[in-house]
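A reminder before we start the practical. When you read a complex entry, don't treat the lines as separate problems. The point of joint prediction is that each chain is placed relative to the others, so the output describes one connected object in space. Small molecules and nucleic acid strands, if listed, are placed in the same frame. In the example below there are two entries. Take a minute to note the order of the lines before looking further.
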Amino acid sequence: MNIKWFKYAAPSTFYPLAGRMIPWFWVSAILFIGVGLYWGFFHTPGILTDQKEYYRIIFPHVASAWMSMWLYIVLVGWALVGLIFQTRISFMMAEAVAPTGAIMTFIALVTGAFWGKTSWGTWWDWDPRMTSELILLFVYIGYMALQSAIDDRRRADRASAVLALVGAVTVPIIFWSVNCPDPNQCTALHQQSGMGKVDPDIVIAMLVTSLGFWLYSFAIIFQRVRNIILQRERNTRWVMELPEVKRGK
Amino acid sequence: MWRGFTTMLKRDLVLAMRRRTDILTTLFFFIIVVSLFPLGVGTEKEILRKMAPGVVWIAALLASMLALERLFADDHADGTLEQMLLTPQPVALLVLAKVTAHWLLTGLPLVLIAPLVGLQYHVGGDVTLVMMQTLLIGTPVLSLIGAIGAALTLGLRGGGILISLLILPLYIPVLVYGSGAVAESMAGGGELGAYFQLLSAFLILALVFSPWATAAALKISTE
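Here is the predicted structure of the whole assembly.
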C-alpha cells in the first residue's frame, strides 16, 4: 500500500483536512465527556462514605491531570519532529498544543484545590504531585513566553523547540527531586494511584471522561493550528484564494 | 582544541578584570538579599537558623540568574559572538570556556562569601562548611543551565526577566538538594553522602548536555 506520509505535512493540505475533522472531534468530545460525567455522577456507588459525594470531582481532575502531562509529551514530540525534518506544520502544532496543555494543568490544579479543601481541609499543600503540576504549569508558561517574545517566526519556532527539549530532559528530574526531597527516605504523600482497587464503574467513567478531554484537545488544537496557518501563510496564494478569506474582504 | 578553551577562558577573565564592578555587583546583590530576610521576618535566632538553607540557596539562584544576561550579550552586541561561531573550534567547547569564566566570576565569590551568611544566620561552623560544599558543586550547575536560557533569549526585549521565567523552574532540583543537605546537616548529621552524590550527578549531566544545547541555541539565535 502506498501511503503518502508527508502529503498532509504541507499547511495547504493540512488546513482543509483539519477543517473537516474538527466538527467530528467536537461532537465526539461532547458525547464522551457527557457520558463519562453522567456515568460518574449517577452510576457510581457512593462507596467512599467518608469522602461523601465530593470525591466525584475526580472525573474532571484526573482527566485534566492526565492530559496536562500527555500534552507536554505531544508538544516535545512535535518540537523534535520540527527540529529534525524542518517541517513548518510541526512547529505550528507545538505552538498550538501549549495553551491547551497549560489550561489542562490549570484545571487540574483548581479541581485539586477544591477536592483538597473538602477532604484534607486545605486548598493547597506542598505535596509532591501538586508541586509537580504547579511546576509543569511554569514550564508551559515559559515555553509560551519565549514563543511570543521572539518576533522572527523561524527563530521563535526553533528556540522554543530547544527549550521544550531541555524541559523534557529536566522535567523528570524536577518531578523526582520534588517527590523525594530527602534521598535517604523517599515517601510520597499524595495517595498513590491504585487503579486495581477502584470500583470498575469509577474507572470506566474516568477513562471515558479522559478520552473526552483528549478529543476536546484535538478539536481545539486543530482550530488553533488552522488560525496559526492562516496567520503565517497569509501572503500565499492558496490562503488568499480560500473562500472564507475572500468573503471577509 | 584545549588552546581554544584556555584562550577563551583567559580572554573572558581579562575582560572582567578590566571592569571589576560587574563581579562585585552580583556579589553584593547576594549579600543584600541575604541581609534583607532578617529585616523582613524578624531576627529571632531560631527562625533565622531554620530559614538559612533556603535563603542562601534562593539568593544564590537569583544572583547567578541576574548575572546570566551578560554572559553572551556583550559579545553579541559587538559581533564577536558570530566570529566565535565561525571559528573551526567546536562551539560547545567555547561555550564551556565562557561558562567556566562566568562561574569563576559570579559563582565562586558566592561560595567564598558563604561564611558571612553563616555568621548572620547563626548556623555554626560545621553547617557553614556543608553550605560552602553544596554551593561549590551546585553553582556551576546553575551557570550551565542558565547559559541555555541566556543563549535562547539573546538580544530579545526584556531578555532578563524572560530568562527567569525559562530557567528558574529548571533550577529546582539543585535548590531542593542543595538546601536539603544544609538543613540535614543542621538537624544533626544524618547521611549527607546521598545529597552530594545527587548534586554531583546533576553537575556531570549539566557538563555533558548544557554546552551542546547552548551551542545549538546560540546558532538559532544568531542566524
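Discuss with your neighbour: The radius of gyration of chain B is 18 Å. What might explain this?
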